[in-house]
Write a structure and sequence with these properties.
Number of helices of chain A: 3
Shape of chain A: globular
Largest sheet of chain A: 4 strands, mixed
Oligomer: homodimer
Distance between the termini of chain A: 41 Å
Strand content of chain A: 25-35%
Number of strands of chain A: 8
Largest interface: A-B, 67 and 66 residues
Chain lengths: 157, 157
């Protein structure tokens, strides 16, 4: 199927139209929010280039652009933590995507071993948020050393 | 309260520690996913600079960085569509934030008039996603002309 994206020439068409006209930033990337379709929990926040987006659309398996490795990254290729894309949403100005996914493998998504990458929240004190974090997931789903071995850690300082 | 962020010097501390060490990109921005705390629906995807983040932490009202207007943007200042920040989460490498919010005003978030900015999904054909969109919200919550008047539209081509 032809998946070419139409050129963005009208704000009205971008916001109110039925034509997919995604906006990639100056790095050629668009952010993706990945959500567990079963409970709407946000699992991760990644990026896609045009090729990763089209691969996801065609294969129904989530593909991202790895900014740390500088390559297309088919989720689960190393870890088995695949994501089947059950729904794709796009926002008003078409510069952000949501993937609603069914988790494969160990039913987790985060390379640190937790289900979601968002396993910490900010604590509060005197009705303000502080810079001290609290864990919201108490146990890891898996041991990342067993799953990833010596693969370089994608987290950069 | 002192809200200064500690310097990122250890991947282990960033991923597994209890110290808030957010990473701002080369524009000085960090992405924020805003969620309705009542049903986990994703409302919008925005950005904050350090000042907007600290204002949100102190005031409990969502502040963003407007890339189109190039300024701090206190959500709801023009429209009344305020967001009270009930929970703040951060991801593994601390380069993305979630705001769980209680919506004020008309209980909507999107400048086009819908509740969520994600009011369209990709349709499917022959077990692939297509570049044709379908609306998932059938009615606007408000008329943007009445709320925003002549304010320039933030959507850019």
């Amino acid at each position: 199927m032809n998946l070419d994206f139409k050129k963005r020439i009208s704000v009205e068409e971008v916001e109110e139209g039925k034509s997919l006209q995604p906006k990639f930033d100056n790095r050629g990337l668009i952010p993706v929010i990945t959500v567990d379709i079963n409970n709407n929990e946000i699992l991760m926040h990644g990026y896609m280039n045009e090729e990763a987006f089209k691969l996801s659309m065609k294969s129904l398996e989530a593909h991202y652009w790895s900014r740390s490795r500088n390559c297309i990254w088919k989720k689960g290729e190393t870890s088995g933590l695949k994501q089947i894309v059950k729904e794709i949403k796009i926002d008003d100005d078409q510069d952000c995507i949501i993937f609603k996914v069914e988790l494969g493998g160990l039913k987790a998504s985060c390379h640190v071993g937790y289900k979601s990458c968002f396993y910490r929240k900010l604590t509060m004190k005197n009705k303000e948020y502080t810079n001290i974090l609290e864990f919201t997931e108490n146990e890891k789903v898996f041991d990342p050393k067993k799953i990833y071995g010596d693969t370089p850690n994608p987290t950069k300082l």
